[in-house]
Amino acid sequence: MIARDVEITDLRPDAWKNLMSLVEISRIADVRPASPNLLSVLHHGGKVLRVYAPAGFRVPAIEQVGDPQELAKKLYYQLPGLDGVQILEKDSLILFSDHVQRSDWISNDLEDFMFRAYALAEQDPAGLAFYPQFNWKWNGLPLESIRAWFASGPDPCAYFLGITRDSAPWLTLILRVMEKKIRLITTIDFLARFNIPVAGMPSSPKDLATVCEAIHTHVAPIRSALICDYMTFARLLSSEDKRRDLTLAMADGSASSFGIIE
Amino acid sequence: MAIRIESNGLYLEGRQIPLYSGSVHYWRHAPEVWRTILERIKELGFELISVPIPWGLHESGPGIVDFGERNPQKGLPKFLDLCRDAGLLAVVRPGPVVDEDMPYGGFPLRVIRNPAVWALTSTGAPAVSSRFAPPVAIPSYASEKLFQEITKFLDQLMPLLTPRQYPDGPIVLCQVNRETAFMGRVQAYDLDYSPESIVLYRQFLSEKYGSIEVLNGVYGGRYTDVAEIVPPKSCEAVVQRDLPWYLDWVEYKEYLIRRFHTRLTRMFRERGVTVPLAIDGPGVFSTPIDTLELQKVIETPLCGMEIEPRPADYHGMALHIRYLTGTGRLPYASRFGSGQSWFTPHVLTPAEQEFCILSAVMHGMSAVDFHMLVEGDRWVGAPIQRSGAFREEYADVFRRLGVFFARHKIWDGKKNCRTLVLVSTGLERFHSAFSTLNHAYLGLLRIPRVFSDIPASLGFQTEPMRQSILEEGSWIREAFRYLENAQVEYNLAPSRLMLDELTKYDMVFVPTADFMDPQEQEKLLGFADRGGHLVFGPALPTLDERMNPASVFGGVMQTPGTQVRESGKVTFLPSFDQAADLITADMPNVVLLDNPNLRLTIRGGSTILVFLANPTNTVQRSLMISSWPLRGAWNAPVETQTGSVTAEVAPYTVQVWEVLK
Description:
The complex is a heterodimer of chains A (about 260) and B (about 650). By secondary structure, chain A is an alpha/beta fold. Chain A has two domains: about 1-30 and about 145-255, Nonspecific Lipid-transfer Protein, Chain A (2-Layer Sandwich); about 40-135, no CATH class. Chain A contains eight helices and twelve strands. In chain A, the strands form three sheets. In chain A, strands 1-10-9-8-11-12 form a six-stranded mixed sheet. In chain A, a hairpin with a 2-residue loop joins strand 9 and strand 10. Chain B has four domains: about 5-105 and about 160-190 and about 260-410, Alpha-Beta Barrel (TIM Barrel); about 195-250, no CATH class; about 420-580, no CATH class; about 600-660, Immunoglobulin-like, CATH 2.60.40. Chain B has 16 helices and 29 strands. Chain B has an eight-stranded parallel barrel with strand order 4-5-8-11-12-13-14-16. Chain B has a six-stranded antiparallel sheet with strand order 18-25-26-29-27-28. A six-stranded mixed sheet of chain B has the order 20-19-21-22-24-23, sandwiched between helices. Chain B is globular. At the A-B interface, strand 1, helix 1, strand 2, helix 3 and helix 4 of A face strand 10 and strand 17 of B.
């Protein structure tokens, strides 16, 4: 999805800071919870070596691991409040590290290596058991469908996202996709190279048209664009029916977009 | 050599130039804007720039390089000539590792995909690092193939660089390599198990022990030849006498790094590099980096360190700067972010950037290279944009600081510091050796850190594993806390620091275990005999590092307390609970504070400056009592004040007061 030699440039600091806060909220590339509420059991051939539980959780004594998948599930439901349980066999951990580093690290996609690493962890259910299983979605959207969507556009094409907060510019993001991969990640500052005044952030359909025209000329033809306020975007992120909610937001004027619903 | 290094920078035939520079990635900018960029840098008050030279950028095939002949954007010679024309001096960084957010750390893919250059893990896999995007197989410091490839590149590069050395050209310093410790992979049993590395491991053992009999005596083994010895892959020690085998592996990795950089240095010199050399470490305080030995290798005190400015990590940053100040004559932050990498969750504001730079200066930084002063790829918050235009709010910080530093001759001054804390080489090696399950990528699964601990106890009186600088609650960390609460500024250095260096301090703190190098103990007692106050704890050493009975401190004192010697003092301090009166009135606290949240240092030179930092997110107030008249020089009231001064310091800011003599 992201080319290994992707150009990430002209990042307006305030806009980028805001984007990073969104990425953090949505955990775009993290299939594992960062939360401390993770119960971990280390065993060697079934004999339990260590148990690590987050503070406040009283874990029943475990001396032997029989069916690790079953045990992970059982502990998860037995201890409400846990984000996850992992039962890890020591030799399998060492093998996991080995397999990750023997995998093809020369990939055309920047994110491939890390996703492949997580996928390898799932391929040894007897040695590395996780409950619940890894989350391969980003805000409800399966990662594979996001990849497919980026790969399905015209070649080349561009995407634009603009978010306002309290009526002030808050975030801009421009992506260029060529040969089915994201090859440029930038902000509206990129347009300054072409002497296009970009002091502000487009906040009306007319502004959007102006910016989109500049992106069309200097980046690539725009496949889709979205401008909305922060609250609307946050609502869309967590929405279970994103299509319906975007349609509603466009109808009540809190979002302008094209190329998404179609 | 026409260039020498002093505590206030470089001297070019007697002319002093502060080592105050910023990096420019020429290949990321159109040649048409190079001149503009260089002018902008000068406008920010810089006389020096640093120039990374990525091998993988210039090489397009075996022996085929482009230095601007085909692609003008790769025109390194032209760029250096423009620097000279613009009146700028240059630090060049030819690698072989440059990082700089280049694919594969700057290596050509052709080179780095060759298994003959790979460092191998304990399971025989290539050690692949995902710190770089895309990931890269870490090269082995033992690989002859790697040396052959480096040689070919240097043979093509150096004829372009050496004629451009000062005084004929702008180059005044050359940095050897980057990411000095296996690209940051420093765990004991992670790497390097490549066949060539194992040969060197055995060579190291032969050099260390001299004969197989001596080695057998230490290992309790029955080897007939060193070739029979295999390196450990995890710690499984059950008794103390098992330890030397593991500790030697840890020490070998220091040897391997030193050997690689010695050879690299020689290659640079043989190809005509005459300017001083610098090197940078990955920000670790001890093994596998031996800062003092690396300084000997490059024959300059410029073993720098990478500093990532983060206001919330003020204490960590201060500790790194204190280490640079304790170990080098010219404390050099060889890569200090001017802005941050694109994936950072917290983008620095201009005010935060200012706070971080001043914080580093107040703790002793006297030389710095600002990474990506001109914005390149995958970077956010540089003062100069890619187009050559200023990013005004960030540029303003550098502009104002440049004027401030020049006005107060900041680089001529040194931090006043009479207290030193030593990082024990022996303890840190033990901490590294006594570990398991440190395999790469287990962090992805959020493996708890305790899973890497070894539950076995080796029967020590004081548990050494808990005494590493990396462990919260260790004696050395308690020493930091104690000194900071007492508002005593300190430096940090490896315990192998020479006696002459120790005697520059009044007080030295050193953490101890049941085992300790007897020569090191003798040296430390020598410090006390020369009038210093030595404080050690929590253990009274009774063994040497091969776990044989040996006690030097024990010959002086057996119980906790302070012993007054002929001209100095020795204190055995098992716990800081007993440290109430350790720091007496004769400690050099010139300015006192009543708010422990604020940090204060004094930097003396032709002007004396008092720095006051607020590393918290709330306003802090304090009474400063000074026997000197003070006047605000940065962020502080400019009216002259004497006696007691009430300071109010905004969150994450630094105030500077000038002492009026």
